[in-house]
Amino acid sequence: MKKSTDVPPPAYSATEKPFKPYRDKSEDDENDYTPYEPPSPPSFVGKHTTEVASISLHEHDKLRFTNFPSPLLDGAVILIQQYWPRGVRSQRKYGPSHEIRMSGAPWLASGFGTIHVQRIVKELIAYMMSHDWKLYILCNVSEKMGSLDSWFFLHIPGLAAATITPQKEWSVITFEHSDRIRIIDGSQRLISIVHSACLQHWYRGLQTFRLYRGTVPECKLRGYPWAANGPETMYVRLFIATLIELLETAGYSIVGTLNIFRTEDYSFPDSWVLLHP
User: Fold this and answer.
1) What mean pLDDT do residues 46-57 have?
2) Using an 8 Å Cβ cutoff, are 197 and 243 in contact?
3) Of 6, 30, 51, 157, whose CB has the highest number of CB atoms within 10 Å?
């Protein structure tokens, strides 16, 4: 497998400048630094080499796959074509990665388009785990405004056989419009857990329970918990803690909490990808 270190990074042209961080001026200067001799590198002789791959979201319509084995990448492309209604617009090699440009603007989606996007994310993570790749860490490695997370996967042989049963259930819980929780592809058991949590454990109570676009269960809470101020922000944390307790007790694991949608002037709550094995 070709590593990113095999190819030197491209030099900046006269017209292409490195991104300037949003910080106008660093408080550090050269006087803050002293020479430091790094320690000797550790020895990994005889140890198995760990494989790590990443999926990253870019701009408003791009996915980039880095360090992916070819068969795994081929299956991911087919999955995206299957679950994104507008399909794939183009593909190309981008540095050491493979870039897929989706039609439309999924990372700026609104309305029911957000459901399709979150379903793609869920299916990608489920696909990776079914091929023994565990979601290991989610992190934002860019200082650019509006940048999204990168997802890093660790290859663990035998993971799927040890973790997933034929009755597995993958689902998504999302936090919407300052006061709503939606359950995407959840079983009746999951819907009941979330509904009961909202009804019994949100201190302001549940306003309505309904279907969004006739297919997605939604709990509309009283007040605006996802835009709370003052002490109410802590009631939100208490409610979320209780919801997690109920999910764990029922056997659900939160596989990842993902920042999917690009915003530059406000925060968008993470989506939770759940697995009941």
Assistant:
1) 82
2) yes
3) 51
The pLDDT assigned to 34 comes to 84
Q: For the chain, what are the domain ranges?
A: 50-160, 169-276
d(CA 175, CA 268) in angstroms, rounded, equals 9
Give first-to-last CA distance, the chain, whole Å: 31
Identify which has the larger pLDDT, 268 or 67: 67
H or E segment and range at residue 251: none
Which tokens is 206 given? 């549940």
Is the Cβ–Cβ distance between 66 and 74 less than 8 Å? no
Under 8 Å between Cβ of 254 and 204: no
Residue type, 138: L
Q: In the chain, count of helices (H) and strands (E)?
A: 5, 12
d(CA 65, CA 76): 9
Q: Are 156 and 134 in contact (CB under 8 A)?
A: yes
The CB-side HSE value for 146 (13 A sphere, CA atoms) comes to 9
pTM for this entry = 0.83
